[in-house]
Each structure stands twice: as structure tokens, then as C-alpha cells.
Design brief:
Length: 87
């Protein structure tokens, strides 16, 4: 009886790590699927829906602003390292 309980617990824990059977998610927005950065398996990833009714100009503006903010963050991090090391 104890062996049966241990075997059942072992099988239950092994099933927790089995891959889930899911269908491929589709999006209604396919306008920007060919842009740089759209990679499988997600494709174009817009979780907040900022580009639901956007045109190419809006997409380009948001991409430009994202790159600009990333560069500012990199400089801020470098400034923090320089300041802490007393250079």
C-alpha cells in the first residue's frame, strides 16, 4: 500500500513537468510581423496594444523613442559606475 502511494505521488509530480498542449496563438495585428525584432515563437509582441490602430509612422516613432531611452539608460549606468569608482 505504501509503495502504491509513493508511485502515485511520483507520477503526479512527473506530470507537472510535462509540456502543456496549447494551440498556436494568433494575433489580429499582422501589419508589423516583418519588422526587425519580430521573432518566433511570438512574432510581433505588443502586450499593451499600443499599436492596435497604428500606422507605420506611429510604429517608427515608438521604436525611435524606445532606442533613445535605452541609450540614455546605458549612459546613466555608465555614469553611476564612473561616479562610484571615483574616476
Amino acid at each position: 500500500m505504501m509503495k502504491l502511494a509513493a508511485f502515485a505521488a511520483l507520477m503526479g509530480s512527473a506530470a507537472a513537468f510535462a509540456p502543456a498542449q496549447t494551440g498556436k496563438a494568433t494575433t489580429a495585428l499582422n501589419a508589423f510581423e516583418s519588422e526587425l525584432g519580430a521573432q518566433p515563437p511570438l512574432g510581433f509582441f505588443d502586450p499593451l496594444g499600443l499599436l492596435d490602430d497604428a500606422d507605420q509612422d506611429r510604429f517608427d516613432r515608438l521604436r525611435y523613442v524606445e532606442i533613445k531611452h535605452g541609450r540614455i539608460c546605458q549612459l546613466a549606468f555608465l555614469g553611476q559606475i564612473v561616479t562610484r569608482n571615483g574616476i
